[in-house]
Amino acid sequence: MIEKMIRQAEIELAENFKKADEISEYNQEKVLKAFNSRGIALRHFNATTGYGYGDEGRFALGEVFAQSLGAEAGIVSPALLSGTHALTVALFGVLRTGDKVLCISGMPYDTIRGVIFGDGNGSLKDFGISFDCTQLNADGKFDKKQIQADIERLGDKLKMIYIQRSRGYELRDAFTVAEIEEICKFIRDLGFKGCIFCDNCYGEFVEKQEPCDVGVDVAVGSLIKNPGGGLAPTGGYIVGTEEYIDKIGRRLTAPSIGNEVGSYAYGYRLFYQGLFLAPHTVNQAIKGSLLIGKCMEKLGYENFPKLEKTPADITRAIRFDTAKQLCDFIQSVQEASPVDSFVTLEPWDMPGYDSKVIMAAGCFVEGSSVELSADAPVKEPYTAYFQGGLTYEHCKYALKKILGKLL
User: Fold this and answer.
1) pTM for the whole thing?
2) Pair 216, 163: CB distance under 8 Å
3) Which of 217, 283, 292, 348 registers the highest number of CB atoms within 10 A of its CB?
4) If you ran DSSP here, which 8-state letter would residue 407 be given?
5) Is 50 exposed, middle or buried (0-12, 13-18, 19+ CB in 10 A)?
6) Helical (H) or strand (E) element with 278
């Protein structure tokens, strides 16, 4: 029964898979051209120590990422410990005391809230930087009327428009690049001249264009998500205009030094190779997400994005009726993992979250969510967030485990 259901789902998804392959081919060529135009050679993989002055590998890696992601300049560093850390460095690099930020995609993801609103922990709030949110409309889309009103209300102190591309733990679809392009134009037409900032986590290489291609000034992400291709062992990236990247570099290191320093004693090969593989790896994850979505739909489980839509990131939200169904789904993903498949998962108080979280991540790189993984806050509505998969075949194997448990 399970094999038959999967085969039928693959037949029904033929056009979706074809489109995903076209996007992957386009992005692979784009990344390869970035490597070629920067003259990447074996010397760029070399380890460096100390200050890292003249570190060709670090400089060129930032340039290759920037070109691949449609930006003028970039910082790619193992010193950026996570997506949240990269976002934090970028925010503090751009903003100053008295500045105001407007997030137009609703409340940001859980782990960044303490960075924004925390008391006494060195947050933006502690440094006198205010952060307002415009809620999305009933369809989960940008509310232009309210955005305009909020921009006018905040006035000249408004220095940044913040967009979270992915859904986080919300039941909305990720924003497409076309939607981001439209809202960037709308904001500029209102006269806003500050920084348009995008949390791009989970969205890289899902479409042919990136946020910086369409009007975003700074885009930020994690290397243990899409752009690391499953090989990057740690790190994050920040890309954007030269002006903003220079400012952010002075926050990552020191105001007097900026992007002139930074060494890495283990060498840069995995970062380069991960980026090169990223378009294909993302393609595998997208196909796996579509297949799982189709089969869960056949079983009557509501999931997002809807299958008639082109995905805008690698995550899929699946709703369950009970906490047990939710946890069984997450446990099935763990059991299908190459690492720690024997582990019995339990919800726990994960730092940065307001409820217990259960997380499947039997990954080669700890916490890597471009590898097959799933997580969920254990609270109503019981929604699992499934992402990643280095190979389509692994996603398919995991689906058999999931269906076996649910049926």
Assistant:
1) 0.96
2) yes
3) 292
4) -
5) exposed
6) helix 269-298
Q: Is 269 helix (H, G, I), strand (E, B) or coil?
A: helix
Amino acid letter for position 17 = F
Alpha-helical (H) ranges within 190-268 are 242-252
Looking up tokens 């369409």, which residue turns up?
214
**Distance linking the first and last C-alpha atoms of the chain:** 10
Tokens representing 324 are 């047990």
Strand order across the beta sheet in which 373-377 lies? 303-304, 315-319, 383-387, 373-377, 357-360
- DSSP assignment of 157-173: GEEEEEEE-S-TTSSSP
Structure confidence by residue, pLDDT tens digits, 281-293: 999 999 999 999 9
Residue 389 · residue 395 · CB < 8 Å: yes
Element (H, E) at 56: helix 56-68
- In 156-241, alpha helices (H): 177-189
- Specify the 3-state DSSP secondary structure of 237: strand
pLDDT, tens only, 40-60? 999 999 999 999 999 999 999
Residue type, 388: G
pLDDT greater than 70 at residue 96: yes
Rounded distance between C-alpha atoms, residue 64 and residue 47, angstroms? 18
SS3 3: helix
**Tokens 């080669």, residue?**
364
CA distance 262 to 238: 15
Q: Which helix (H) or strand (E) holds 4?
A: helix 2-12
Pair of tokens at residue 272: 């380069």
The DSSP code sequence of 317-352 is EEE-SSHHHHHHHHHHHHHTSSSSTTPPP--B--TT
Whole-number Å distance between alpha carbons of 141 and 143: 6
